[in-house]
Amino acid sequence: MGDALASPEAIERGLIARGLGRSYGDAAQLEGGAVIDATGLQAIGPVHVAGERATVDVGGGVSLGDLARRVAPQGWFPPVMPGTRHVTVGGAIAADIHGKNHQRDGGFGGTVESLSLVGADGVQRPVTRESDRALFEATVGGMGLTGVITSARLQLEPLPSGVVEVATQRTSSLDATLRAIVDGDATHRYSVAWLDLSGPGRRARGIVQHGNLAAPLGLDEDQRRPAYAPRRALPVPPLPGRGVVRDPIVKSFNLAYWRRPRKATALVPLPRFLHPLDGAASWPRLFGASGLLQYQCVLPDGQERTLAALVEAFTKAPVSPSLAVLKRLGPQGEGMLSFPLQGWTLAVDLPAWNAEVYLMLDRMDEVVAQAGGRVYLAKDARLRPDLLAAMYPRLPEWREVKQRIDPEGRIRSDLAERLGLVPSASRIG
Ligand SMILES: Cc1cc2nc3c(=O)[nH]c(=O)nc-3n(C[C@H](O)[C@H](O)[C@H](O)COP(=O)(O)OP(=O)(O)OC[C@H]3O[C@@H](n4cnc5c(N)ncnc54)[C@H](O)[C@@H]3O)c2cc1C
Question: Does domain 163-387 have CATH number 3.30.70.2520?
Answer without folding.
Answer: yes
